[in-house]
Amino acid sequence: MNPDSLKRLRSWFVKNAAELPWRPADLNALRDPYAVWISETMLQQTQVSTVREYFIRWMERFPDIETLAKADEAEVFKYWQGLGYYSRARNILKTAKIVALRHGSTGLTNQAQGPCTMPRTRKELEALPGIGSYTAGAILSLAYHQREAILDGNLVRIFSRLYELDFLPMDSRSAAEIYWGYAREVADSPKAYMHNEALMELGRTGCKIKAPLCEKCPLAKSCKAFADGRATEFPPTKKRTEKNWHGAVLVVESADDKILAVNGGQKFLDGQLALPHFESARNATKGLPAKAEEYINADEIESMEYRGTFRHNITVHKIECDILYIKLRTNANHAGTGEKFAFQWIEKAKAFETFANSFSLKALKKVF
Ligand code: SF4
């Protein structure tokens, strides 16, 4: 998301942030990590309007981790009754006991050690019962103001609409990575806490599932789905079925040891430096595919070898790709390349550190 969009998002949030019992009046204030943890856990699968009263009653009875850690399950359940999903309450109690026990286990007095509070790293938080990547990110960014990303249903809906992502994070590992990439981009700022919370609020009150309020949205200027009049078509309602794709990837080496790379404009890895690739039938090994001539001049080829096939998944695509290793008789600066793509020649010795996607790296590993 560009800086202007983030600035508009912050101004919108400052003007529109709802008053909530777990949200201080000063939106820039550090939060109590315990309160963030409890409120975010209560909010999982439960409406804000319901959680309000529960949160207030809970904090009156269990104002901090140590008080909670001393409670028994029956009493904790009493304060949870009506929120459903009792495993959440059970995990909260387990985690409180673990955190309190560790806090008291060093032999230092509490005063020397500071107050008993939630851990400050994602690794430690995610190791606790009931704390997943979302809650850990919320605690780290809202309470400790760390540059940590969060991704919940609200943010998924917003990212899906902003960038017209027609897949869900649960579709595949690479699909999840694309969503987390956008979440990390938003969090890569000293104001990560505000960006994260503003997006949660926007998803809840503006970018609604059925009737998004696009006209009033601070992100409308950069929202692809809004521009195309397709906001409610995103995100897809269910997991997409996998699609098979067969193609060829070219490892083109110039006479002076450089490798041809393309930046965007292809089927996969848009906006990334990647090896040239294109859809092809399963007989790519028999001679130079016609599509390859969009990348290189056939009469500059010194040799061409088929170097096997690899499998790879990107979003919903199950890819099978033949690798063609092509050596040119010309140096990189003399080699003819097509005009359709943004080409770049990179040093062969630096190829493995230059490509940042496993699609290209898998192909290179079969050649070098
Ligand atoms: S413009 Fe509409 S669809 Fe896009 S993020 Fe805003 S509310 Fe959501």
Brief sketch in words of this structure:
By secondary structure, the chain is of the alpha+beta class. 40% of the residues lie in helices and 14% in strands.
Please give a structural write-up.
- It is a single chain.
- The two termini are 37 Å apart.
- 40% of the residues lie in helices and 14% in strands.
- The radius of gyration is 26 Å and the shape is elongated.
- The protein has 368 residues and is an alpha+beta fold.
- The longest helix has 19 residues, at 86-104.
- The protein folds into 2 domains: 3-233, Endonuclease III, domain 1 (Orthogonal Bundle); 243-365, Alpha-Beta Complex (Nucleoside Triphosphate Pyrophosphohydrolase), CATH 3.90.79.10.
- It has 15 helices and 7 strands.
- The structure holds iron/sulfur cluster.
- Iron/sulfur cluster binds at residues 158, 161-162, 206-207, 212-214, 217, 219-220, 223, 225-226, 231.
Helical percentage:
25-40%
Shape: elongated
CA radius of gyration is: 26 Å
In round numbers, the mean pLDDT is 89
Q: What class would the helix/strand composition place it in?
A: alpha+beta
| Quantity of strands, as a count | 7
Total of domains: 2
Low-pLDDT residue intervals, each spanning 5 or more residues: 106-111
CATH topology tier name of the largest domain: Endonuclease III, domain 1
Order of strands, widest sheet: 4-1-6-5
The topology string of helices and strands comes to: HHHHHHHHHHHHHEEEEEEEHH
Number of helices: 15
Task: Please identify, by name, the CATH architecture of the largest domain.
Answer: Orthogonal Bundle
Give the cofactors and ligands. Answer: iron/sulfur cluster
Distance between the termini: 37 Å
- Regarding CATH, which class of the largest domain? Mainly Alpha
Proportion of strand residues: 5-15%
Q: What is the fourth-level CATH superfamily of the largest domain?
A: Hypothetical protein, domain 2
Quick one: biggest sheet?
Answer: 4 strands, mixed
